[in-house]
Amino acid sequence: MLKNILSISGRPGLFRLSNRGKNMLIVESIADGKRTPAYARDKVISLGDISIYTDEGDVPLWEVLESVKVKSNGEQVDIKSIGNDAAVREYFAGILPNFDREKVYTSDIRKLLTWYNQLLAGGITEFKPEEASEENAEPEA
């Protein structure tokens, strides 16, 4: 699911890949549904390609988002009420206890929580990719 959700540098919010054009992508804002082009010069990254550094390696973003969903009971996270940077890092340690404290900045954690809230507001509540969902499915008898 996250493969089609994009973050574009310099643009607020998240976007859903809608279509491809010549030398550009047509993206749709998750917040308001407005379609705009993203050109080759724009830095576009798929949320499906993002991972979080941990002490043992990298954890895919979808796993972290699933953990946030469990911790917040599927509700949006009130980032401002969490408090200062130390409190944000402590909150994130409850989600991903072994995150690399040197490589993962507080701004990264705030961005991740903001993305989580934007995805929920856009009606996206399933973060597992189809391949992971199929691997975890029960075999048919």
Automatic annotation (TrEMBL):
Name under which the protein is recorded: Uncharacterized protein
Pfam families: DUF5606, DUF6852
Ranges for domain DUF6852: 50-119
InterPro entries in the cross-refs: BVU_3817-like_C_sf (IPR049281), BVU_3817_N_sf (IPR049282), DUF5606 (IPR041218), DUF6852 (IPR049280)
Residue ranges of domain DUF5606 in the record: 2-47
